[in-house]
Amino acid sequence: MVNTATPAYDERSLRDLLGQVSSGTRTIDDALEALRGLPYERIDGFACVDHHRELRCGSPEVIYCAGKSPEQVAAIAYALARRSPVLLGTRATKDHFTAAARAVPDLRYDDAARCIYLDGDARRRRAEGVVLLAAGTSDFPVAEEAARTLDFFGHAPKKIYDVGVAGLHRLLARLDELRSANVVIVVAGMEGALPSVVAGLISAPVIAVPTSVGYGASFGGLAALLGMLNSCASGVAVVNIDNGFGAARLAAAINGRITAGGSA
Q1: Which residue ranges make up each domain of the chain?
Q2: Which residue stretches of the chain are H helix?
Q3: pTM of the model
Q4: Is 73 within 8 Å of 99 (Cβ atoms)?
């Protein structure tokens, strides 16, 4: 079994550790051993796992599984799970999951999102405020990657799927939900028009995600990307093609500031 008693290196766990030393319930040597993995841990010459990232950047390291062997993903997942009760790996295959689950028995696989994940922190809360739109069912995998990533970063997105501009009445029927959002992620392929339409209807920032969905002239998502970059609506930020993870990380940062009482 994976030992998850070693704390994750976020502000909460570090305060707990220092408090234990201050109260005398933990020795200085124990604390030094717990902190030995800072700022990163070398793994067999192919990876440097960043255990310090959440303390430094506000969010933990995530495994990008594509291009890595199942054995490499398993080793990285094990290193992360030893120090944190939660982890996420994106663009994971079933082979990645099978190998990693042997090292991290409680690991799960989200087939729709193509992600491996561990969620062993019962204290974690999910903030509301993010709305996640997908233009069509073909955009579902990228949208689900964004949804799984948002959950990992502590946010509960409201999903509104299959509301593309080919049937605008479907989008307008959900306008009240859109206008209640702190930030909206819009996932769309083909000509990529949906983010411009959404941004023209609401005051919240819009994060546009072009997908590689469409016929030949869509050029694997390039047409949607260029259309989103040339949006006539203001307040639209654009991430790379199929980058549901990047959109979710940005949305989490915006929503986290707002729900914490700060400003976006």
Answers
A1: 11-119, 130-259
A2: 11-23, 28-34, 53-57, 70-81, 94-103, 140-152, 168-172, 175-179, 194-199, 222-229, 244-259
A3: 0.82
A4: yes
CA 85 to CA 259: how far, in whole Å? 24
Q: Which residue has the tokens 């570090």?
A: 14
**Token pair 């099978």 is at which residue?**
98
* CATH of 130-259 given 3.40.430.10, 3.40.50.1970, 3.40.50.1240, 2.20.25.530: 3.40.50.1970
Q: Which of 115, 149, 111 lies closest to 130, judged by CA?
A: 149
User: Could you list the mean pLDDT of each consecutive 10-residue stretch along the chain, which spans 264 residues?
Assistant: 46 78 87 67 75 70 94 93 90 97 95 95 89 96 97 96 93 95 97 95 97 94 96 95 97 91 58
With CA atoms as reference, report the closest residue to 121 among 91, 98, 153, 96.
Answer: 153
Query: Which secondary-structure segment (H or E) carries 208?
Result: strand 206-210
